[in-house]
Design brief:
homotrimer, 264 residues, alpha+beta, Rossmann fold, Elongation Factor Tu (Ef-tu), domain 3, 2 domains, 18% helix
């Protein structure tokens, strides 16, 4: 794979501290020509599952060879492995704790290594509290510059990578039961129900026992109207006309959403 | 115009989601050498007017040829047009909903096109919910690389572009009535009264019937003192010595501010 | 020193306004090939001391020759000096108000100049409210491109630079009394007690009269357990197992932390 010179960062570090800036310093020390792109640093602290879903939504939009660093890492400093994975589209670098679960479901690991070669680290003696800086940023920078992943440490079998349980909609007699998988800044409820599931059939969407009209866009006539649509993640979303569906429905990640077949 | 290889982004997307990161991925897929600069992503959701004012404050500080993408887009997926505009300083790309109103008042459109040529989009079939990703980011990247705007779609007459009502101070017998046009992170109240209006005459500034001393800098002697000054936007601002004028005056965007001629 | 083409920005401007974006525009106007890295813009308004500590934590991770701009500048527009400083690792640019105190304690100024040469400013007539845009961003860009610091204005003696009082732990008969120097996004309490102080001796850490076990990593067995460890700043930190120590201990920056010798 041609090297991309692009590294993306996704963390739960927030933006009030210097953690993210320091990771970028480490990356630019490897090669100042690298481009570093923030996916988001607002993953809720230690919420590996939210990180996995965010990475899934982003990775496919980047140039081939892009290196995605995902650091939601409550196990930093323990014996959890530090890993790099090659997939068709590029590379994934981070802790072996399931943060790449959803990307790997859609784009399986071609090969994976445990990061043990400290000459690619920011320091030969990594701290026990900040592998984002001491290991992942630096390794990602080398990968983005074309260093072969095999040099980073021993190959490990992809089947040994830690996986989170996948949150998939469950088939029911009259349709599917999904969940609110994420909530965006506008309060839109993004479900785990793929828009593809909804093709070739008419459906009824319901949340909190309310049936929601399925529409094509966020635009709408009556402020406050409830609606369901296929959002930019390609999944079923629940939104409120010029409003905030999260507040309106008092919804949380994990709430049930139902999809029932319509009988014409 | 020489191409700049610079794209700026202004949106109401916030930074908790991956929307902005995904737009950057799309831009780097067009050309990984492009620089992408965030203006802000914290425009209040769907507040086109706030977006217009923020763009006005920023565009003139960038190199010639810079492409500014503005996405506050409640009408995404409807028949509102997607547009690109050439101005003296560079390009503007976004929805045709008035978001460029204030820039265009100061730097009129030289030419404008409707974005219809899908070969410059991120996908031939744009979603109905995220034109920032599927149309604007990609078109902006091509413009920043030097692609001629004429290739992006048919020319449209600048007079047909949607315009927001301009918020200008209103002349009154003894001076001007303006408004609080924006409030910054420090709580400073930025008015729509240009500092140029205030040259060659002495004035009295008042808010909530309180007369405020006009000073030269934010520095001050007594914490909590009220003051008025020409701020970095070049407009009259109202501030509080080492404090937050927004909280102190209980002000909101749209509140009246009065400028009265002083009779010596 | 070889020029780095890298400028970092640390401010108290927040990210809701366009201030930071405008500084980047000014930098790219000097040279569009420059890389601009955000350290953080969430320094509490006008908290120079917090800015100094954040800069200390970040500067050493960047390539040699990097130019660090620090703008927490309540005195903008007064007669406080605008300065640039050369240190071994690179350059520091900002107001002469103590914001570089902690970096300079660890890496003393090699030379310093007062910024008076307006040909390196964004405008020959800087505003009195935004030197970040009108002076510092532009000067930093020139330094990052290799312009000699001597051209920027007259040399000033480093001993004349404004210094904040350094917050150092105080030796006591049975150990040290430090303070909570900063609190990170996870609620970890970062003290001013260097991990180096703690080598070659066993210690007892206490906060609010509670003795805290010293551990090696954030990982832990019982959610809610209190702990002390050497964090990524290299300083003693106080954390809570899978929780927020700031909320748990009701701590603030400045609170006392005690380190007592253990007698075996």
């Amino acid at each position: 794979m041609k090297h991309s010179l692009i590294v993306t960062l996704l963390t739960d570090f927030g933006i009030s501290d210097i953690f993210v800036g320091v990771m970028k310093g480490v990356i630019l020390r490897v090669n100042p020509k690298l481009s570093v792109i923030d996916l988001t640093h607002q993953i809720p602290p230690q919420d590996i599952s939210a990180g996995s879903f965010a990475l899934l939504g982003a990775y496919r939009y980047f140039p081939r060879g892009t290196v995605h660093v995902g650091v939601v890492d409550p196990g930093v400093g323990t014996n959890r492995r530090a890993i790099a994975i090659r997939i068709t589209e590029g590379y994934l670098v981070g802790p072996d704790n399931g943060i790449f679960t959803e990307i790997l479901f859609h784009s399986p690991a071609i090969e994976a290594v445990e990061l043990t070669e400290s000459r690619f680290f920011a320091t030969p003696n990594p701290s026990k509290t900040f592998h984002g800086r001491d290991i992942f940023a630096s390794v990602a920078a080398y990968l983005a510059c074309g260093t072969n992943i095999h040099k980073m440490g021993p190959l490990i079998h992809p089947s040994t990578l830690i996986q989170l349980p996948l949150s998939m909609p469950i088939e029911e007699p009259d349709g599917w039961r999904g969940i609110v998988r994420a909530i965006d800044r506008f309060g839109n409820l993004i479900t785990n129900i793929s828009g593809k599931l909804m093709e070739k059939q008419s459906w009824e969407v319901s949340l909190n026992s309310k049936i929601l009209p399925i529409v094509g866009t966020y635009s709408c006539r009556v402020p406050g109207d409830e609606m369901a649509l296929i959002g930019s993640h390609g999944n079923l979303e629940i939104a409120l006309c010029q409003g905030n569906a999260q507040l309106h429905f008092e919804s949380r990640v994990g709430d049930d959403v139902f999809l029932k077949r319509k009988h014409s």
